[in-house]
Amino acid sequence: MKRIAIIALLFAACATTPAGDQQAAIRAVLDAQVAGWNHGDLDAYMQGYIHSNDLTFFSGATITRGWEPTLERYKKRYQGEGKEMGTLTFSEVVIDVVANDAAFVRGRWHLAMSKESREGLFTLLMRKTEQGWRVVHDHSS
């Protein structure tokens, strides 16, 4: 019986990805989002989000559900007439891998634009999908 338990533990250890590797993969997704944003490419930025109707985005008193509505919200807010995207940075990022396929990410965002700067906090729930790590819930203030 002990051998079965030991074999099961060894199998479980081999089947999981070290948290450091997962954190690096998640950080790469966030870095790619920043790069997409800073190139004015919302489609590239949105690749960090799960392309699903299950995506939720909370900001202020507004709840947006789904990938396409979230993209449209960004376009209206940052690419509409007289709008600009500015330069995005993330800081104070903390990534907690809570399961082999789930992570809790929090940090600060800063958006520098020609006439103003905005900043706030974000909390993300990320899931590991067939396409890699993706944001499934974003709460930004």
Explain what this protein looks like in three dimensions.
With 141 residues, this protein is α+β, with helices and mostly antiparallel strands. It has one domain: Nuclear Transport Factor 2, Chain: A (Roll), CATH 3.10.450.50. The protein has 4 helices and 6 strands, in the order αααββαββββ. Strands 2-1-6-5-4-3 form a 6-stranded mixed β-sheet. A hairpin with a 4-residue loop joins strand 4 (102-112) and strand 5 (117-129). The protein starts with a helix and ends with a strand.
Task: Provide the descriptors you would attach to this structure in a database record.
141 residues, alpha+beta, Nuclear Transport Factor 2, Chain: A, six-stranded mixed sheet, 4 helices, 6 strands, disordered N terminus
